[in-house]
Amino acid sequence: MPEGHTIHRLAKDLNRSLRPGPVQASSPQGPFATEARQLDGLLLERAHAYGKHLFLDFADGPTVHIHLGLIGKMRPKEPGTGIEGAIRLRLESDDALWDLTGPMTCALIDPADVADITASLGPDPLRRGARREEFVDRLGRRSIPLSAALLDQSVIAGIGNVYRSEFCYLVGIKPSTPAKTVRVEAAEQIWDLAVDQLRLGVKLNRIVTRTPSEVGTTAGRIDEDNRLYVYKREGEPCHRCGTEIRLSEIAKRKSWHCPTCQK
Ligand SMILES: [Zn+2]
Predict the structure, then answer these.
(1) What CATH number does the domain containing 248 carry?
(2) How far is the CA of 229 from the centre of ligand 1 (A)?
(3) Is 3 one of the catalytic residues?
(4) Which among 127, 258, 126, 140 has a CA at the least distance from the CA of 200?
(5) Average of per-residue pLDDT across 196-216
């Protein structure tokens, strides 16, 4: 599933390529056709993200709420590209074309709905004004394992399986540790990491958690096999201590850690 950095990057790219509009909207696949007709010809006022939720505000019109879910994709295509696959929503301007396929959610909503959705979420480290204290407070109230709490969107918005595994490693805490026993300083460290890491993720449009100096290159040049510490690295040596990375199951989700670096 795409994590928050992907959705924030998407909002940035959509703002850059489709504003100031007008935007032609269509739903070649069908189920969103009536809604797409309502949007057709409107100006895209702003695309913005909160956690894994994407909102497209149209001037004097409704907001499109998109959640990509597990398999959804929203991708730029060459203008003039024909219809390929099940395209739920196509947005076009004179020189840009975006196709949305396979979303978990694609719906027209009003400002009250936007407020309800965002009120259900924890602070998003990529949003201006997001408060570290709020995250620390919410984390401290959960007795579930740390790695499960970091996936809970009402604790922190935008974190998925890759970042949560990597954050536990980077703060040196075992993923199974109950969230409420994590010390305040460590919780603050997790938040600060999230802010830095997700910002880098937006910039690079991919997740790179390794410290560039350890790899001997820049973050942008770290190759696919070297960009993470633990995620999907079971059986391989820890980049820092050489111990085999271990795979376990926590709250029914796969979780990775280094038994030496994470006590
Ligand atoms: Zn290690």
Answers:
(1) 1.10.8.50
(2) 9
(3) yes
(4) 126
(5) 96
